[in-house]
Write a structure and sequence with these properties.
two-stranded antiparallel ribbon, globular
């Protein structure tokens, strides 16, 4: 991975400085892919757009904040002493945000996907793989489902996965039946196998290459 400059931005609420790491190039070598679309890749770190101010906990869209400077990776981080890396919102932050403000479809979809992933993180990382969905999670997944476009392969795959995680296996199967572009084939087959086993929980996709 080649890191890019760290962008220093200013929180509109508290004027605290927030560091935003960037990458020039990355790769998915040894990455872990999950059935809900999340990817964990050391060489391609997540670049979240909606984050929490580390100073005052305000929720902000980081790319919309005023940029006050850039620190090249080689110089290190001594230039802006009070700058801190952002915190990540939790599931409640993502869920409440679309109720607090009117968002366009793209942003609301982003928040709902992140809420979905944040809910699944306890099944992913905390050994609670078969924990049932909470009412909030179900409501969020249904709202996300309604926003998706079945004529788009990526969206349709997400719709199948949502139906599977909701335990609606027959509906998941209907979404999986129509052919997908070849780049989706491994994910389609992983989700299809879980549907066959009537397993509704998020899972790691095993690539056998
Ligand atoms: Zn702040």
């Amino acid at each position: 991975m080649i890191p890019g400059p760290t962008i220093i931005r200013k929180c509109p609420d508290c004027s605290g400085l927030i560091e935003q790491g960037t990458i020039v190039s990355g790769n998915t070598f040894l990455a872990i892919f999950w059935t809900d679309g999340k990817m964990d890749a050391l060489m391609m770190p997540d670049q979240p757009r909606f984050v929490k101010c580390p100073h005052c906990q305000a929720l902000v869209w980081i790319n919309e904040l005023e940029e006050v400077g850039r620190v090249e990776p080689i110089i290190g981080d001594q230039v802006y002493e009070n700058a801190k890396s952002y915190d990540l919102p939790d599931i409640q932050d993502y869920l409440l945000e679309p109720r607090r403000r009117d968002y366009d479809r793209k942003k609301e979809q982003y928040l709902r996907v992140r809420a979905w992933w944040a809910g699944n993180d306890k099944r992913r990382y905390e050994g609670e793989r078969t924990q049932a969905l909470s009412g909030d999670e179900i409501e969020n997944m249904q709202a996300l489902y309604d926003m998706l476009d079945p004529s788009d392969d990526n969206d349709r795959l997400m719709m199948a996965e949502i139906k599977r995680e909701l335990g609606q296996f027959e509906e998941a199967e209907i979404h999986l039946k129509k052919p997908f572009a070849s780049e989706f084939s491994k994910t389609v087959s992983a989700i299809g196998q879980l549907v066959q086993r009537q397993d509704p929980f998020v899972a790691e996709i095993q690539f056998e290459d």
